[in-house]
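WARN retry 2 of 3 for item q-0093 after timeout on previous attempt; input resubmitted unchanged.
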Amino acid sequence: MFISLESIGWMDHPFLLNRFRISNAKQIDTLRSMGLTSVEWVPERSTSGPLPSVSPSAPKPVAEADMTAGALQAMMRNKRDRVMQVREKRETIARCARLFEQEVGQIRQILDEVGTRPNEAHAHGRVMVDRLVGNLVRAGSVAVHLVNLKKPETGIPNHAMNVMVLSLLIGRTIGLAEEDMKQLGLGALLHDVGLAEIPARVQRNPHRNAAEEQFYRAHTGYGLKVVAPMRDLSIAVKNVIACHHEKWDGKGYPNGLSGPKIPKLVRIVAIANRYDNLCNPLDPKGACPPAEAIARMYKHESSSHDPDILGAFVKALGVYPPGTFVMLADGSYGLVIETNSRDLLRPVLMLYDASVPRSEALLLDVKESDEKIAGVAAPQDVPREVIEYLAPQGRVDFYLEAGK
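OK item q-0093 returned
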């Protein structure tokens, strides 16, 4: 039976949710220990109905000593602890979001400096990468969540930030040495620097003719030309700029490299670049939800990518990447906040419950509960009130525009 305790108030009962399906006798014992004699039944979400009423003449069971008070208090303490975890998680997301936006602003300045003060841009880029290797990347799933949010301003700086964060997360997952991580981050930061030479009408055209496509592909060469004045820029970084559109099967450009002939750092950036282009394209109407982007790359584009690095990428983001809407088996909605590298099918969710204030929205660790994810919910199929409730930082534009 599916029941509702909304009339009691979320902080006045020990259960994780206000509305849930009764699945074991312990839940019934807990309801009784609260002194309840009746609860609200939700027939349309139940798989069975109430039992027949007991005849007044039927013998009453022998009363048993009430041993549930201690268990009830423990459940309430656990619930208060969860509320504190929610607040701490929200503070972490807010802190990382501020850092994320600050770094995007720094990238904008670095890219503006590349043409006129290339060596200063190089130095500032190295400093930024050092910060990210030491701070933001450690935020793991929170950082990925921020990547998956549509920003108020799109363009090369945001894309560079996203690809840099994703690349560094992959690098950390596969155990790159610190110096390689720094070269990886700088290469990801500068990988699309040549796009500044390509008109927006060509960049944004999804149906480029042969001449326009050739012009667009020249951005790798333009990028090398832009960074040429930089002193001591490593070959590894230049290779990322030149080769981030090469593919594992040899069908990429500009040189048609294949397999191990493609430098390792390039292979990492190529995967991060493709994921962000799927999730955050120039035209938001064509955006893929994170889980769909992962599935597309893994199932339909695997020949384009190093299989080992692609596998590490999926492990880092999970089957349900942060930012994915899911529906639970009981019909409720959740938004993936954090992945579990040891169990990719059981992430941490923020749950929608209109009876709980948005500021105290419940976080559910699926691996520690009996709840099950029924499937991914496409943004266009998620009710607007659910999106407005779950979208971190109040940002709903990505989800709403993606569903148009």
